[in-house]
## 1
Amino acid sequence: MRWWTRTRGQVDDLVLLASPNHGIAAADLCVASGNCWPAVWQMATGSHFLTALNAGDETPGAVASTNVYSRTDELVEPSDTVPLAGAANVAVQDVCPGRPVHHGGLLDDAPTWGLVLDALTHAGGADPARFDVATCAQAFAPGITPADAIAGNAELYSRAAQAFSEHDGVSAEPPLRAYAR
């Protein structure tokens, strides 16, 4: 939405799940070591990439933006770096107080599913006032079994670990591409 402005007319809703919009502590720690993977450099607080991405209007165009995140996300921390100005920013715990949801768990979580569905089926972003609190009693999104959730999360985290173990880090943030300058 930021850099390819012509796509804005083709998109009604942008829904982000736990996006590290303003940097995350784990990336900051890695950057301090001086040897991180390129994407981790870009997720650090104050990185050139995030600075360019968030310059000016954080939700440009007439696209309804929704940010669904968790205050118990073990990766995107601190969670208060997620919200974007101009977006419907909804923590799962805003609609289901005390519900623990980890980063990968957002993909199969019933309340997350409900918020995403709300954003996609109504004008504007997700609205917690329309949220059915009975969804808080459901563990998983429709059609997801406990076995699906376990297998999906195991694959997600093992692929991430494999990707990091197979690629050397770099000593600086990669230069911004021309479209982001």
## 2
Amino acid sequence: MTMLAVRDLHVAYGQIEALHGIEIDVEKGKIITLIGANGAGKTTTLRTISGLLKPRSGTITFNDRNITGVKPHVITGRGISHVPEGRGIFANLTVADNLELGAYLRKDKVQQSEYERIFSFFPVLKERMKQNAGTLSGGEQQMLAISRALMSKPQVLLLDEPSLGLAPQMVQTIFRVIREINAEGVTILLVEQNAHMALLTAHRGYVMETGRIVLHDETRALLASDRVKKAYLGG
């Protein structure tokens, strides 16, 4: 079942068209990945889905409701959380404050069990709750950004370059948690420069080049594709 659908999406920055009629299906319960070179349009795609950019034309539907051009806070309230490239944490607030802000739009009360769930994914955050987020390492800040998004109880999580700038061991941790979050029922749309890790983690992948989808398939097929190997996997 398609939970999030992008249809004939065109997005421009002034006169420069960044997305040329892309189409993406995000199936419920799956991890879908977008791979491609810098400037391919991956971040623009996520920013448009989450309402940060308005498309020139095309539609985005979520649970059969049109959310094209809807304001970001409304989209978050409906169940789509966006972890942006660069993390976007509040550096001068504590870890605890950042997590609390993640639940800001919720009408229900945050349960202690939700914090315990976060700490089961990222135990180090429990020790850092009173620290200012700006004092965390890059990897810890990425953990916090993902955790803050989870506090809104999303149905779909948009992840933009979660491994960017992280040490290899931290990359392994982040991707392990992405799989665990998905196993709990959260659908994930993952943008990632580390194409090999992304394709090993996701169920289905889309390859973007200069604002267009040029290939999409099950990730097993993409990993075996000569075109993908040559362009993105160093093969």
## 3
Amino acid sequence: MLSIHTETLSASMNGKISFSPASPDALRIHAPFFHEDGDMYDVFIQEKDGQLFLCDFGMTLMRLSYKMDLDTEGKNKSFSKIVANNCVQFDGGNLFMPTSYESFFSDLMQYQTAVSKVSNLEVLRRESISNLFFEQFSHFIFDSLGRTYQNIQSKYKPTNESGYEVDFAILDKKDRPVYLMAVKDSVSALRATSLCLRVANSGIRHTSIAVHDSTASIASRDRDALTNAVDKQYTSLSDFESQGASFIARQIA
């Protein structure tokens, strides 16, 4: 017979949670934790051999499967990292965490954080890849182009105005600056377009280069606007790495 003292658990949360039967040995926790679509997190408290556990009975991964599968090594590493960093355990699809009446509040907060991160693994994965793109772009600028050019500046403002900033500028020849911009999404594409138009209107002689993470992640109208404003585009970092140095050399020669 289930003997979970719900009054004690509810009191630790200042009465902000409630419970309903889920199985012979578990209760569903109704707490103010919601997914983006408004659905409440699937969190349960289970009693086994006198030990309390927070768990989800596989519901979090089932929900994630509607958006993506853990079908690559990278995705599984991201998932495992979330589980380990949030003190949650994983078995047969079930995310669970031991808890007690004394630690219930902090454990529930930690558990819902883990559920939130797993539920948004697709977003976190994209952000991780996006950050890696900029790191690789920066690495190429300084480690490869840096062998040829001595005056490379990051976060450079061609017009000395806030809001108009290029990721990198090659300034070895002040009368022929080359501005390099990493473009990973529509927001950065619009920012690059605005910068190119502003610099063109200022009359500064320059060459602007946009390097894309993936053109597929940019709305067609934003991609078209950038095409009309920038001097040169590379549709991938690998293309820039193989062809960019020779193009820059021609602009500066």
## 4
Amino acid sequence: MKENNEINSLSTKENKSNIAKINLFLIIAIFGVLLFNQFQLSGVNKADITGATIGTSSPTSASSSDTINLEAALKEITPRGIPDVYGGELGVSYDDVVKSMSILNQYDDLDGPEGRGSKKIVLSSEMQQRYNKVTSMIGCEFCCGAQTLTTKSGEPACGCAHSGAMRGLAKYLLQKYPEISDEQILNELVKWKTLFFPKDMAQKYLASKGVKVSTTSLPSQVGGC
């Protein structure tokens, strides 16, 4: 009986020893996990401060999104190719803004270099009223600051080439294609204004869509005043 008690006592001591070892192992394992988690959290905090995670040079998601938004906006508002109706006969193209600007300026009222005003158009009373209406609905504010292309009496409100080109086109279309509506003429002027002032017109379009994207990479204007 005594021998059995000793055996049971030894077995109990051995079990307690094993349990103690297991507990010690668990404590060490838990400590290791906590230490590893702390290290990971430290890395996350560092990434938050520097703006980049380990293994990457810089964050790209925001800039990539901006680029996509800007490219989509430009694709939406920028005309390409030769304008319908008048493009071929005048020799103007949306893809050659500077040359086209010089051509359209020939039909403006103001005289100037490179044949500006050399083909000025005198409109009938009815067409002049339409001209005054259309040119009062669009301006050249990004260049000369004028909010309209003409004054109330139909006189040029600004002497810059951008404004002259839009006025010249308006007169040409009214004389040559009187069946075209005022809205269609205005839309055509807006296309050229977008080509003349890419940065501001893109920003204006994006703002109307509630999208905040920088357009500083675009030129302020194309062609001189």
